[in-house]
User: Fold this.
Amino acid sequence: MSAQAKQAENRTHFAGDLSTPEPIPEAGIEAALRLMRNGRLFRYGEDRSGPSEAAMLEEEFATLTGRRYCVAVNSGGCALYVALKSVGVSPGDAVLVNAFTLAPVPGAIEHAGGRAVLVDIDDRYVIDLDDLEAKAKSSGARFLMLSYMRGHLPDINRVSAACERLGLVLIEDCAHTLGATWAGRAAGSFGEVACFSAQTFKHVNSGEGGLLVTDDDDIAARAILRSGSYMLYTQHRARPPAAVFERHRYTVPNCSMRMSALAAALIRPQLPALPGRAVRWRAIHANLVARLSQIPHLCVPPRPAKEGFVPSSLQFSLTGLNVTQMRSFVAECRAHGVYLKWFGEDRPEGFTSRHDHWRYLRQHWPTPNADRILAGLCDMRLPLSLSEADCWTVAAVMEESMKAAWEAGRDESQV
Ligand SMILES: Cc1ncc(COP(=O)(O)O)c(C=O)c1O
Assistant:
């Protein structure tokens, strides 16, 4: 839309870009330059090289998350795959997973040869514990991939208790929950293993990157070997004793999913910045929620007091609108500078796909609540650069878009 057309229309327009990442701290840029100058981009040396950036990152990340061991890999999706294989998922094994998650999660289950068993969600967008119990029993699954999609945490104490009762190994997908807590305890400290992402839109950014943490000797050794350590595992610092690797070095394949020293160098100086970033993200989220809650047909579910979330994005449900109105609302917002994603689209688009789009799944388990909720679910990024005035503008665009969308489809039946 041209500047003149925008003015003539008399509508608010947001000129920013919600997908703007934070710059890499200067210390990371300097470390990256040093590496490029000496060429040591591979995480392993053979002789006389000191600890690599990747080994140091693993040590620091293990400390940060309160875990004994950490393995850095090339993406969050690969961390999930390595985790699944390292806890013993074999071809054909059922893996429970909440139906609201992102494509790399069922992708990792498929990659590991597992069979995804979709579990329903509740109105807070998190796993439904009754359905978890029912599906665990009917599928005979021994594994739960618990995805904290978009940073929404279930009652993890109750999930952990259910896993114990049902004999499930818990793998936490913490791609959106670095620094988040449930009842004061860090997400990523509940399961046998937890996985994080360092893809650009996450809490730390190296473009691509994944980190797996665990306290278990054998899981850690298998993960290091599978990540592609070329038997150079003694160069890892957050690792179990060498004797543990003797148990696995002949049976675990080298899958070459290493994190490069360069990615690690970019992440390391971001770790001390996390608490400050969390405060800023919470303030932006609260600011927007206060304004969005005034808009009709737009519902932001309340977050429980026990949930210490670090919202790098915001989700809300469209209610009392038909499909034409929802589509028109999203299009109006986009046309006025607010890029929203909508999980109700027929086709998978960008980052937004729905479980029924994953047609490679061997079975589609019924998830009626997820189907209803995803039909009206919207998602937006929260860049740390969003000022208070930006929040006003974004909210104004949404309010005006809602009015326009309501008018556009009012003759059609409501959902
Ligand atoms: C919920 C969730 N899990 C896992 C991942 C995988 O992360 P990556 O993009 O690093 O593979 C993502 C990526 O966005 C995600 O949203």
